[in-house]
Specification:
- InterPro entries: RelE/ParE_toxin, RelE/ParE_toxin_dom_sf.
- This protein has three helices and five strands, in the order βααββββα.
């Protein structure tokens, strides 16, 4: 099981995101629980990004919204770094 580690920067971004998208809070929490329990679960649609975001991964909250993640595999830590729509995050 992986450990989620939230930076102050991510917490600020998430708060701002949820001020605009309160309807996604429950779905977001479910995504985090699943991510912690099984990052490879198919419903998360985990994939590695390329280009300027090389080395970063993304999971889906739903078909429109994503969470970008930095995985520190060797320490079993997952550090969320951004949240938003597909266009906002990428």
């Amino acid at each position: 099981m992986a450990e989620l580690v939230f930076t102050d920067s991510y917490v600020r971004k998430a708060r701002k995101f949820f001020q605009r998208h309160t309807e996604l809070v429950t779905q977001y929490k479910k995504t985090l629980i699943l991510l912690e329990a099984n990052p490879a679960h198919p419903s998360l649609r985990l994939h590695k990004l390329r280009g300027r975001l090389d080395g970063i991964y993304s999971v889906s909250i739903n078909m429109s919204y994503r969470i970008c993640l930095e995985f520190l595999i060797e320490k079993d830590r997952i550090i969320p770094i951004s949240i938003g729509s597909h266009d906002d995050v990428y």
